[in-house]
Design brief:
heterodimer, A: 271 residues, mainly alpha, B: 316 residues, MetI-like fold, 1% strand, disordered N terminus
């Protein structure tokens, strides 16, 4: 597209960009090394030795399994709710121009634009005012609140590309509104919903701040991690859990990237 | 012709779904209401409502003797907010947010510029993923990684000693404000982790802004005799500014509200988020917590208004 003899990047720029990327990735790579260290009492570098022992120990830990299962359940349900609400919002905003359209966009973004602690405290006070005991469902509702925005962002971008004449053609050919949605709109926005859903899942799986305020006695995996971070008691197990969390969030992100990469390249743009 | 008519006619008029569909077609407002009803009921009523109720508590105050909230409008809580100790917290948080934002711009710009102008094909995808993966990796794991890195026995100390620069690290830690016993309990540590965690939020908008700068503009500037520094100063920077401002909205606002990073890596002195957390939890002073919360909201409202005037939202 641009001039054929593209100028080469100056060395300084290359160096700065490369170092920047290293800065972004080395810390995460270090997690993988520490998961195999034999050191139990400190964060010593270099590790005195490497072992697979802690993988087995972590595998046998009931509390880690409980936290992981809770996190997966919460993330699945929160994603499902966010998918429905986010798609509804996106459909309304992109299909018609109405008074207060901008307000709806702002409203959807607000739970993630405001610091998590504000959303957390507000929801907590709402739940206690309504006498709802803190439980699995309050965690899910809290997560769904801020997951709507990622589904919404992905869906809105795809709706914008979906030509209105396709819908009209479907109507002309005799499909009613539901058939049009099922056979024309859904296949067109499907991958963007999948991508949005995966990002919502990753977001929920990782969330700790809002969860702190909306959870009762249960601990999700991030809450478990946070307790370990504040008062480290079992460093080797935490190292392994950290590695697992990196792997679990990596897959949906990669999948979302490949689902949306041709077309609107905004998979994660809405975090 | 007849076959087509025969196919389409029945499905339009029979069945409840068909009638419902026709009804919605004739009344677009009804459809809009049905679409927006559920999300607005949750976000608009429950979420905004509880937000408003929480924030409005700041105009009440705690009774010093009973420890209960007195529901009479008063400015006492705001007076308490601007006491010296609390003002310290606000200034500390604001300075940290400002320094973190500036550092993020410096680190992010080369990455964004290279990705926008020089990276092509596979490299482009690699840069994109290279920013996306850290952005979406677990927030706590990222903080944990830095706890490993900055620990006294960790990799930073090791690297400095290997390079025979241990004295430099010690000298840095001996500095009055930014130093401390080890990096993980110093402002320097807090600063590094903030920059690391928010950096992708700065890279993406700058890259989006730079993508829109045509290469020919840079070439034209060179043809007209500008050296690279002048081109950067007078052509690239002004065009990238909306992206930089958009990124700074993220880094600034996220730093203002965070309470986990300074709690885990940093000195024991509080930031706004920690103060809110302490006031609503152990101290049980909801009005003061609400007043503390108003601070970042007001600052960000002003910031957003200024950013809008600079055209930052077109770069998102």
């Amino acid at each position: 597209m641009r001039s054929e003899h593209r100028a080469k990047a100056p060395f300084g720029l290359k160096l700065a960009a490369g170092l920047g990327l290293l800065f972004l990735h080395l810390p995460i790579l270090l997690i993988f090394l520490y998961a195999f260290t034999t050191e139990e009492k400190s964060y010593r570098f270099p590790p005195p030795g490497l072992t697979l022992e802690w993988l087995a120990v972590t595998w046998g830990r009931a509390d880690v399994w409980a936290a992981l299962t809770l996190s997966l359940k919460v993330a699945s349900l929160a994603t499902a709710i966010a998918l429905v609400l986010g798609t509804l919002c996106a459909a309304a905003v992109s299909r018609s121009a109405f008074f207060g359209r901008e307000v709806v966009s702002l409203l959807v973004i607000l739970p993630i634009a405001l610091p998590g602690i504000i959303t957390g405290i507000a929801l907590r006070s709402a739940f206690s005012m309504a006498d709802i005991p803190f439980s699995f469902f309050t965690i899910v509702l809290g997560h769904a609140t801020f997951c709507i925005v990622v589904v919404y962002n992905n869906a809105v971008a795809r709706f914008r590309r979906l030509s209105g004449s396709l819908v009209e053609a479907s109507m002309d050919l005799g499909a009613d509104g539901f058939q049009t949605f099922r056979y024309v709109i859904l296949p067109n926005i499907g991958t963007s919903l999948l991508a949005g859903g995966m990002l919502a899942f990753a977001l929920s799986f990782d969330e700790v701040i809002v969860t702190t305020f909306t959870a009762g006695q249960q601990s999700t995996l991030p809450i478990w991690m946070l307790q370990e971070l504040i008062r480290p008691r079992q460093r080797p197990v935490t190292n392994v859990v950290a590695m697992i969390v990196v792997l679990v969030t990596l897959l949906p992100i990669l999948a979302a990237f490949f689902l949306t990469r041709d077309g609107d390249s905004i998979a994660g743009g809405g975090k | 012709m007849a076959a087509v008519a025969g196919l389409s006619a029945p499905s339009r008029t029979t069945g409840t779904t068909g009638r419902l569909s026709d009804l919605l077609w004739r009344h677009p407002r009804l459809l809009l209401g049905l679409l927006l009803g559920p999300p607005l009921a949750w976000l608009g009523v429950v979420y905004l409502g509880s937000l408003a109720v929480f924030l409005s508590q700041s105009i009440f105050a705690i009774d010093d003797f009973s420890g209960l909230i007195t529901y009479e409008p008063t400015l006492a809580t705001y007076r308490q907010l601007f006491s010296d100790a609390n003002l310290d917290i606000i200034v500390r948080t604001l300075s940290m947010a400002a320094v973190v934002t500036l550092a993020s711009i410096v680190v992010a710009f080369p990455i964004a510029y290279y990705a926008a102008r020089y990276a092509r094909g596979g490299w482009k995808a690699l840069f994109y993923l290279g920013v996306m993966l850290p952005l979406w990796s677990s927030y706590l794991v990222k903080i944990y990684a830095w706890k490993l890195i900055l620990a006294k026995e960790g990799i930073v100390t090791w690297a400095f000693e290997r390079l025979h620069l241990g004295w430099l690290l010690d000298a840095w830690l001996a500095l009055p404000v930014i130093g401390g016993n080890s990096l993980s309990v110093s402002y320097t540590g807090t600063f590094l982790v903030f920059v690391y965690v928010w950096l992708p939020f700065m890279i993406l908008p700058i890259q989006a802004a730079l993508e829109r700068v045509p290469g020919s503009l840079v070439e034209a500037s060179a043809d007209l005799g500008a050296d690279p520094r002048q081109t950067f100063r007078h052509v690239l920077l002004p065009l990238a500014l909306p992206g930089i401002v958009a990124g700074s909205i993220f880094t600034f606002s996220l730093t203002l509200g965070d309470y986990i990073i300074p709690q885990i890596i940093g000195s024991s002195r509080l930031f706004i988020g920690q103060a809110v957390y302490a006031q609503q939890g152990t101290a049980g002073n909801i009005p003061l917590a609400a007043a503390f919360t108003v601070v970042p909201i007001v600052i960000m409202a002003v910031y957003l208004w200024a950013a809008r005037r600079m055209g930052a939202f077109n770069a998102l």
